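Let us practice reading a record.
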Amino acid sequence: MAHDQTPVTQQADNDTTSADTTPASTSRRRFLTGSAVAVGAGAAAAVGFPSIAVAQTTTLRFQSTWPTQDIFHEFAADYVRIVNEMSGGRLRLNLLPAGAVVGALQMQDAVISGALDGGHGVTAYWYGKHKAYSLFGTPPPFGWDANQFLAWFWTGGGLELYNELLELLELPLVGYLTGPMPTQALGWFKEPIRSADDLRGMKYRTVGLAADLMREFGAAVTIMGPGDIVPAMDRGLLDGAEFNNPSSDRLLGFPDVSKTWMLRSYHQDCEAFEIILNKAKHDSLPEEFQAILQYAAKAASSEMYWKAMERYPRDLEGMRAEQGVQTYITPDSILEAQLQAWDTVIENESSDPFFKKVVDHQREYCDRVVGWHLEGNTPKEPAYRHFYGKEPTDTSTIL
């Protein structure tokens, strides 16, 4: 823990008294005597309470799992900025990009060991330690969106289950979910994917439970960090890959190696980021700082979504208009096959009691919350057609 000492100016309040009728010489003596006492008292206070005169800055090493150019690293920087501003600079996160200390897929271990104090990533990266990890980042498509998923985490019992998983695996971490991610595309390919059979034998990149899902289609799945995907596609090591969204995919260079992007998929119907902190470091902080780290995750979550809604559509149109990308709507037959594959994945992994506990909890939550949402909210497609005179899919090819 690093400490920077910054002087703080302290200003004394002056008391105002009624008019004095004593002789001038007596008043002067009283003034001079009183001033000397006041100066002495002030000096004694400065010696007795050094914490008032000096503010200390606690600096934490904080790495993202994202390349510098990715908008996700920008989202991590937004979280860091909010923490720094909320603490008045007394708690400062020093943000590093993926690879600065360790690679993206090694970030959690670096935080556990203390090589890093914290990091910004996704839980799907750690599903090799327990398949249930992915349920806290890429849950099954029970009809919820990412904001409803985060509501489950923060108010529906998800945080308690997340902490139970950390305890089960004896991982000395503190973590929060943040940042709702919309539905991700099926991915980038050489040619449009017209049926589930087209995925059989394909060398494909994804992460988390989505890897198990795509293996149900016979794909040869490779898990890798975001910075390695486009080079692997360029060298022919991958036939297809997904990452996340128009802004990230454009900045990472996907349009340079593919012009075919398949929109819509159930493999990652919604997702959220994860912020993790070394537990010993976290617990050593004042409670005020601990609260700031948590509330900043909630504040950054909203800010991230607002920024995404502005940037994602613009970058999607930019890829079409400026880089020749053709977008296609994933056929309903593939989406239905994905739902059936999810049934298999959930059944297989539910042999683990904790996985089953979490997925059952999520299913029950969505039965209530998504059911209420679908019953009470008007469908959006008719309103879009009415006011714009076109289908929401008019800019993509329907296969």
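A brief commentary: Confidence is low (pLDDT under 50) at residues 1-54.
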